[in-house]
């Protein structure tokens, strides 16, 4: 078990410098330190080393650290390297307000949190987290709001992510690495990419969405700033062509409906031609009061269409219990066989029993 303390740092410093120091010199030398190289030292706990107040860069990667702590004194810190450890939670980073680059890849982090005070952070590397079955990397809302205003580079590759909704509207983000995730919804992805108004480089290799039809064309057409996609440069000519093509397709999709609504309804009945004409006449060409119905077109406009009231349709000519009883319009005429039966009944004499 190795604990990072002032004494441990003194010991390593003396080994590197190959000279002995007095107590006064030790304290002065540690106070002057700006870069601390403690990577690969089998450290599993961060103790008290507040004497190193002027540290700007700390290298703690490739250790066995499970918790971030005791860094409250390092107010001048700009770079923190903690990848390849056993960290499961981002915490105790509130005092590092000058931190610009944070490396926490290859740990066990499932939630990006505790960064709401890091308003100067421009790079976050959180790739290849060891997640349990069913877990996926996500962003805590307060931290996401802060990062959306300052973060320029983000690496979230290989974290079982199915959507990038958490990083929508990251207005300062210029480089996004999201390789080897589970992203497959092309519409969701293009919508989010369109909100990243400063994005210049995007890496999506290893995602199912990268095999979708017109994947590259969709992303390029929905970004005005993207200059590199999956390692391939994008020319301005290519972007302009795809954006014009996108606008043309959009205009075609929102044209007004040219087929009259009456014809569309009559055709949808899938009836023989003679019946179609009869239905058309019965519904749309009957005189009398009409019911006005508003139909929304593809343009979002309300187009009024008038339909006859069903009580005025042909064949509606009988009452039962003061309610109109509808009949099929093709049975307006009485069947000749039924007329013969009615006449036979009327002509038949009725015998009364004797008094």
UniProtKB/TrEMBL annotation:
UniProt keyword annotations, A-Z: Leucine-rich repeat, Repeat
This protein's record includes keyword Glycosyltransferase: no
Gene3D superfamilies on file: Ribonuclease Inhibitor (3.80.10.10)
InterPro entries (UniProt xref): Leu-rich_rpt (IPR001611), LRR_dom_sf (IPR032675), SDS22/Internalin_LRR (IPR050836)
Keyword field contains Repeat: yes
Top-level taxon of the source organism: Eukaryota
Name the UniProt record assigns to this protein: Protein phosphatase 1 regulatory subunit 42-like isoform X1
Species of provenance: Polistes dominula (European paper wasp)
